[in-house]
Design brief:
heterotrimer; A alpha+beta (about 350); B alpha+beta (about 350); C mainly alpha (about 350); B: about 350 residues; OB fold (Dihydrolipoamide Acetyltransferase, E2P); 2 domains; 6-stranded mixed sheet; 5-stranded antiparallel sheet; about 30% strand; C: about 350 residues; 14 helices; globular; disordered N terminus; transport (chain A); cell membrane (chain A); membrane (chain A)
Chain lengths: ~350, ~350, ~350
């Protein structure tokens, strides 16, 4: 085993023929695809299942529902089964009721006569059915749109504020020499070490005093100034030739104009990376909103999901659907910007 | 357009003095070139004038108004950077109009000024391009255009030709001279290349070690260098410098060093010779020939002859020095003159 | 210079081009609005003081939401009562710290006065150790495999990376759904002839899946850092080793590992810092259960300050200060290592 692993890790590049380590590599990667994609795919498939199908064990792979028929003389539609009769023939019968190990069945074509069959002789007749109502019901029943809107507002507003104030600070710290610059840098590094997790209660106090409790501002503002963002942007701005800034000064540009018209456009790649990070952070943020957003009206998606999984233990069908909706924007962003995100992270070593 | 006055300019970086007291006055419409070896402070002086560096002492006046503490953006000067410093995210048109927008000039006026400058610099076809899509020479012209549209009080050039290849440099040099003749602004130009200095300048300011060595017209400097530094710096190939005692009849004077330019060393009959030298290297340029020779004590001597020469390495050559063109310097390196044309500027 | 200009001036591709188009449009409008007041400010205070203006908003935010809270936190930790406002809280000295640290034996959480805190510490330590080993191992193997000349490397890299972007709540719910009593995994187990396992009722399984889900969600990030490190190793080093007839294991041991070591160290410390702070995924996945089997330090702090019937900010504050000291030290180490890697 260790030998195998060893060769797998060590095999060198080159060599045109298929070495067995290549096979092992692809095997590992295939397993990886199954393990990484599988769960998400399973979630997506499950989210289209009816509550009844979700309770099935073992579960079916695809969203299936039992077919039903309306039989004259019975007010409710009856579930349809395929029954192996004693003579070996197979008939499709509708089930009226089940009593112990026998089931009372009726032939939809001849509803007058009931047939008793052993319960283990029948298998349900099923067809693929997408329970779209898992997605549509929460919209009407649980104010799902409001959570979606809250999440969107938090993400967009917070990202704009972050980009603005972080880039301003980064500009000051990269272009100018001034008294207290070292101290300011130290302050930024200092905040890098203080995750909000450990100052939860005092930040709560500050937010309360500012009158933001149970408003979206309580989530937007505390995380807006990110040390990561300042660092990332400053690092990039340092590579902008100083001549450009001096040329702009000679061109009678004000310092604000140099920031807005020269430095910002030239920092676009770094700003884009920070924007993506910020969207990710904000869309997924959990602990702080959980602490500060107590009223349901201001819940963001992750908080709402967490609340649902507590309250609606049995309503997995809604929960799964809403999870998919929460996941979807991130998945889309990733699908389009994958290369950009991965290279951005590889270059900065941050997330 | 305006004149410029510098008084006692000093600039220190920590304990290092880069400018050690500069006094200079530049007249309206003049083309002045700062020249000197690298590290002499010429670029710093230009940046001080621009307002991109603060001074440690001294003051700066533009058109009679003191601007020593005025920010770069408020001095009304335009600068062409060595790197051109074109805004890479803007088109040529936007590059040229940026300053005008900053000044709050009306759109129509901006367009007409940019168009005029573009015509003058043959950039009309490239106005919508970004700098990355231009050749080196075109970028250089955009940088100049960006300065021209401003109609600034003074143009500052920081080694603007050093990023061009040799051929383009000569062509652009001519264009700059023509430009100055056409728009006639006050121009201050920094270079380490003395050919640029000689060809462009109304007056040259020679800087060395943070001080002005000499100020004068190109031919002034060439014909009457105030000291050994200027004598050696201006002119190519360099002026020959010899100890006085090597030259017949010169030992008696106050001079310690004699200077003679290569074109004033004349091959002659052995009887008339001041020196006999051994030819070490012959450079045939076709129209002229340079002989690199060694005199007594291996003193190097460069000789320029018209036309082509038959001499080869190892030949002995008697030469004489035209007395009219002999430069004499005292032990301190200052030119010995009955009445010095321009005193060495000691602060 | 020309190179820098070219790289900045090169036609931007992809998202930055689109972003640039949008931003220049809105930037022009914003400019007309913001420039006059900012110009006036510059005239008033002088260009040399403008950096302070640029720095101000960010520093106000840092001050309000980081520095001030750190101070309040320390005040909380030495005051008692249930009031939120520091002035209304009586001074109690080191009482909270004493309570947290009052233990019969530090190895035995039950012997401690604040046994929940120590359970949290113990769980966090267990989680951290397993998570570090698993995370580094899997991301290293994955990075090594991805560094081989394989087809579709971009695709596979993306596959491993995408869970990094998912919300911790989403991650936890995905796995909760798979691991539940009638979930997919138990279906597979029973089809294979096994018994159903109640993963969230057994403490050992609950901790295993907490670590597993964390690794699942974050290994893509560390893989990426290690892959970048591997790709930075010059190819000719390997070619030289090949010319010398070096055996594969030796190549890994004597070339890859030493050259990758700085990146590996950074990954180790980053995993450590994140593990110590772990909360989201585990909280949603197990709720800290069964019992307190997967309750982490951060959950303890959160519960003490917010979720419990009696909100004890003092105790939570003291625990935060202790956690903060640990994180501070770890971050210093990380900065030191990053700086060394950069130089």
């Amino acid at each position: 085993m260790t030998g195998k692993l060893r060769r797998l890790l060590l095999a060198r590049r080159g060599g045109a023929s298929w070495h067995w380590t290549d096979v092992a590599s692809y095997g590992y990667l295939a397993l990886g695809v199954l393990l990484m994609f599988g769960p998400v795919l399973w979630l997506a498939l499950s989210s289209f299942k009816t509550p009844a199908a979700l309770l099935e064990f073992p579960p079916s792979l695809l969203p299936m529902a039992q077919s039903e028929v309306s039989v004259p003389g019975y007010p409710q539609p009856l579930p349809l089964f395929r029954v192996t009769m004693e003579d070996g023939s197979v008939r499709e019968l509708a089930q009226v009721r089940r009593v112990g190990i026998t089931a009372q069945m009726v032939d939809p074509a001849a509803p007058g006569q009931t047939i008793r069959v052993p319960a283990d002789r029948r298998t349900p007749v099923r067809h693929m059915a997408l329970a779209v109502e898992n997605y549509t019901d929460p919209l009407t029943q649980f104010d799902f749109l409001r959570f979606l809107r809250n999440s969107l507002v938090v993400t967009v507003v917070a990202t704009i504020i972050t980009l603005l104030i972080n880039s301003m600070a980064a500009y000051a710290l990269s272009v100018y020499e001034f008294r207290g610059k070292k101290l300011a840098m130290l302050g930024v590094i200092g905040t890098l070490m203080i995750p909000i997790t450990i100052i939860l209660a005092p930040v709560y106090l500050v937010v309360t005093k500012l009158g933001f409790v149970d408003s979206l501002w309580a989530v937007i503002l505390p995380g807006a100034a990110t040390p990561t963002g300042v660092f990332l942007l400053r690092q990039y701005m340092l590579t902008i030739p100083r001549d450009l800034i001096e040329a702009a000064r000679m061109d009678k540009a004000s310092e604000w104009r140099i920031y807005a018209r020269i430095v910002m456009p030239l920092s676009m790649p770094a700003l884009a990376v920070l924007a993506i990070f910020s969207v990710m952070w904000r869309w997924n943020e959990f602990l702080w909103p959980l602490a500060v957003l107590t009223k349901t009206e201001v819940h963001t998606l992750p908080i709402a999901l967490n609340a649902f999984q507590g309250e609606l233990q049995t309503q997995w069908h809604y929960l799964l659907a809403m999870t998919v909706v929460t996941l979807l924007p991130v998945a889309l962003v990733f699908a389009f910007l994958q290369r950009f995100i991965t290279s951005g992270i590889a270059n900065t070593g941050m997330k | 357009m305006a004149g410029l006055e510098l008084r006692g300019i000093r600039k220190d970086y920590g304990s290092t003095a880069v400018l050690k007291g500069i006094d200079l006055s530049i007249a309206d419409g003049e083309f002045v070139v700062f020249v000197g070896p690298s590290g002499c402070g010429k670029s710093t002086l230009l940046r001080v004038i621009a307002g991109l560096e603060t001074v440690t002492a001294g003051d700066i006046h533009i058109d009679g108004a003191e601007v020593t503490r005025t920010a770069a953006s408020d001095r009304g000067l335009a600068m062409v950077f060595q790197s051109y410093a074109l805004y890479p995210h803007m088109t040529v048109h936007q590059n040229m109009s940026f300053a005008l927008e900053n000044m709050g000039i009306a759109k129509a006026e901006i367009s007409s000024r940019v168009d005029r400058a573009a015509r003058m610099l043959r950039l009309t076809d490239y106005l919508q391009r970004k700098p990355a899509a231009l050749s080196g020479g075109q970028r250089q012209r955009v940088a100049i255009g960006r300065a021209i549209v401003r109609d600034p009080k003074i143009f500052l050039f920081d080694e603007p030709l050093s990023n061009l290849d040799a051929e383009l440099r000569v062509a652009t040099r001519k264009e700059l001279a023509a430009l100055h003749a056409e728009i006639g602004g006050t121009m201050i130009y920094v270079t380490h290349d003395q050919v640029e200095a000689m060809t462009l300048a109304d007056r040259i300011v020679v800087l060395n070690g943070g001080r002005i060595e000499q100020i004068g017209t190109p031919l002034d400097l060439y014909n009457r260098p105030a000291n050994l530094f200027v004598a050696g710096f201006i002119g190519s190939p360099r002026m020959n410098l010899l100890p006085t005692e090597l030259v017949r009849g010169e030992a008696a004077g106050p001079a310690a060093t004699l200077g003679i330019r290569p074109e004033h060393v004349e091959p002659c009959a052995e009887a008339d010779a001041d020196l006999t030298v051994r030819v070490d290297l012959v450079e045939q340029l076709g129209g002229e020939t340079f002989l690199y020779a060694a005199g007594p004590n291996d003193v190097p001597l460069t000789i320029r002859c018209d036309g082509q020469s038959r001499l080869v390495r190892g030949d002995l050559l008697p030469v004489r020095f035209s007395r009219d063109h002999l430069h004499r310097f005292d032990a301190a390196g200052l030119a010995c003159r009955p009445e010095p044309l321009l005193a060495r500027s000691h602060s | 210079m020309t190179d820098t200009m070219r790289s900045h001036g090169a036609p931007a591709r992809g998202p930055s081009a689109a972003a640039a188009a949008v931003t220049t449009g809105s930037a022009n409008a914003l400019m007309r609005l913001t420039d006059p007041p900012m110009r006036a400010v510059q005239r008033l205070i002088g260009a040399a003081r403008m950096p302070y203006v640029f720095l101000l908003p960010n520093l106000v935010f840092f001050g309000l939401f980081v520095f001030l809270p750190i101070g309040i936190n320390i005040v909380f930790s030495v005051t008692g009562g249930t009031a939120l406002f520091p002035a209304e809280r009586p001074y109690v000295g080191a009482e909270h710290y004493a309570r947290l640290l009052d233990c019969g034996s530090y190895l035995e959480a039950a012997s401690c006065r604040e046994d929940l805190f120590w359970r949290g510490v113990g769980n966090t330590l267990t989680f951290t150790v397993f998570q570090m080993v698993a995370m580094v191992l899997f991301s290293l193997v994955t990075a090594l495999v991805l560094n081989r000349p394989i087809r579709g490397r971009g695709f596979f890299r993306a596959v491993y990376f995408f869970p990094v972007l998912l919300s911790p709540v989403v991650v936890a719910l995905i796995w909760k759904w798979i691991l539940q009593r009638d979930g997919l995994l138990n279906a597979v187990l029973t089809t294979a002839g096994g018994e159903k396992i109640l993963f969230f009722v057994d403490p050992g399984w609950a901790m295993f899946w907490s670590v597993f889900v964390s690794v699942w969600a974050h290994m893509g990030f560390y893989t990426l850092i290690l892959l970048a490190g591997l790709q930075a190793i010059p190819r000719d080093v390997y070619e030289a080793a090949e010319m010398d007839g070096t055996r594969p294991w030796r190549v890994f041991h004597r070339i890859t590992l030493p050259l990758l070591w700085p990146n590996l160290l950074v990954v180790l410390v980053l995993v450590l810092i994140r593990s110590v702070q772990v909360f989201d995924e585990v909280f949603v996945l197990t709720g800290g259960g069964p019992g307190t089997a997967t309750m982490m330090v951060v959950q303890y702090i959160y519960a003490t300050a917010f979720a419990n019937q009696v909100q004890n900010f003092g105790l939570a504050g003291a625990a935060s200060v202790l956690l903060g000291v640990v994180l501070f030290v770890l971050t210093l180490i990380q900065l030191f290592l990053t700086r060394r890697r950069a130089s």
